[in-house]
Amino acid sequence: MITSPLRSWQAVQAEVLRRIQSRTWQPGALIPHEVALAEEFGCARATVNRALQALADRGLLDRRRKAGTRVATLPVRRATLDIPILRQEIENRGHRYDYSLLKRDPGAPPADVRIRMRLPEEAAALHVEALHLADGRPYVVEDRWINTAVVPAIQAVDLAQLSANEWLVAHAPFTRGDVNFMAASADETLAPLLQAKPGDALFVIERGTWAEERAITLVRLSFAPGYRLYTAV
Amino acid sequence: MITSPLRSWQAVQAEVLRRIQSRTWQPGALIPHEVALAEEFGCARATVNRALQALADRGLLDRRRKAGTRVATLPVRRATLDIPILRQEIENRGHRYDYSLLKRDPGAPPADVRIRMRLPEEAAALHVEALHLADGRPYVVEDRWINTAVVPAIQAVDLAQLSANEWLVAHAPFTRGDVNFMAASADETLAPLLQAKPGDALFVIERGTWAEERAITLVRLSFAPGYRLYTAV
DNA sequence: GAGTGGTCTAGACCACTGT
DNA sequence: CAGTGGTCTAGACCACTCC
Prior knowledge:
2 copies of one chain form a homodimer.
Chain A: H1 9-21, E1 30-31, H2 34-41, H3 45-57, E2 61-64, E3 68-71, E4 77-83, H4 86-92, E5 97-107, H5 111-117, E6 125-134, E7 137-147, H6 164-171, E8 176-185, H7 190-193, E9 201-211, E10 214-223, E11 228-232
Antiparallel strand pairs in A: 1-3, 2-3, 5-6, 6-7, 7-10, 8-9, 9-10
Helix pairs in contact in A: 1-3, 2-3
Chain A binds a DNA duplex through helix 3.
C-alpha cells in the first residue's frame, strides 16, 4: 500500500519491482494500466511510463499497446557487458600495458575468414598479429583481418606504435558488430606466445565489425589462461 | 545541416550519431547544449534529452551536469546478452530438451563455495548436479549449491522432475546477481558426462544470485565442446 | 554562483493491435 | 473501433558540479 506520493521514476520502479518480486503481481498477470498507476502513486503518467519502460528493458515486463503490461513469465537475465579497449582494461586493473606487433601481412584471407567477412574472391586484406601484455606478462594474442577496401588508410599506419584496435576505433566508426565468446585449446603456435602449455583452455572472443553492409575487420582475441569476463546483473 | 524539423527522438539520435561518426563532432569535443540543439532541430528539449541519454547509455557520449555533453574519446563497446533458461535456449534452437538429475546432496559446501556465497562456517546447503541435453546429446553440466537457509522450500521439491533453475526463477526472485565467463579444461569427471576428452576446452559460466545481501545460489555451467555465446552489438 | 543536465507535470495526439 | 502504450510539448524546478 502506498501512503505518500512516489515522486521519482526510480521510486515508482522500486515499488513495481517490489510487487513483482513479492508476487503481488504474479508472473504472466496483467498489471494496472499507466493512468491507474499514476493515480495510485500520485504522479504523472510520464513518470510511470519511464519506470515501466526501464523494467521492460530489463526484461521483467512485457508491454504491448492495447494488450497492456504483463509481468514476464520467464524473466530473462539480461547482462550488459562492456567490451573495453585492451589498454583500458589492463590499465584499469592497475597493470602496465605493453603491446608488440608480431606480424603485418597484406594478402588474401583464408576462405573461412573471407566467408565470415563476406568478401569477394580476390579481395585484398591486411593480416595483423599482435601480443598485448600486462606488466610484461602475455595477456592476449590478437589475430586480425582488416578489409583494406573499406579502410585503405590503415595501410599507411605504423602498427608497431599504435595497435590496430586503437586506430580503428578512432578512424573507422562501425554501425554494426557481432561478438562470439567461446573456449579453445592453445595450439602449438599460441601456447608459447601466452606462456601456456599446448592444450590449455583459453577464453576466446571473436568480434566482427561492419560499416553498413561492408566488413571492416574480424578479430580473434585469445586470452592467457585464467582470464575471466565478469559482469554484474 | 538540418532543413526540416526532427520530430522524433529517434530522428534526433540518428542525426547526432551521424555527426559523431562523420567526425563533425570530434571525439572528446563538447557538443552544443540541449537547449541549442532543441532550437536547431525544431523540437522540445525533452526530445533532445531522450536522444542524448540513449546515446550516453550506449557509451557514445559522456554527459555531466554543468560540464555539458562530450563525444566519448574511447567509445566503449557495450554488448547486451540474454542469459536464457537452458530449456528455452535449447528449444529455441529447435532441439528437444532433456534433463537428468545426477546428484542431490544436502551438506556443507566446500570452503571456496562458502566464501563466494559468504555463508557462515556451519551453514547447511543443498548440492545439486545435473545434466541438460539437446536432442539427447549432452549440452551442459550444472553444478549448483543452494542456500537452504534462504529457500528452505526447495528441500521438498522433486528435482528429478523440475530443474533447480526453473524452480528458482519461479520461486526465489533475486535482487542482484553476478556472472563470470571463462574457459576451463574438462577433468576426468566432466569429460565423460559431456562426451568430451579429458583436457578439452570447455566454456564455463559461473553465476551467483542474491536476495538483498543473502546468497541464494551459486551455479557453474560447463558447456559441451563447441559451445559459443553470441551477441550482436 | 551560475550553467548544464535530470526530471516532473499536464495535456495532447499518435500508433499499434486486440476484439 | 476502442483501449493501451509511445511520444511530444512547454514550462518549471531541482541537483550537481565547475569556476
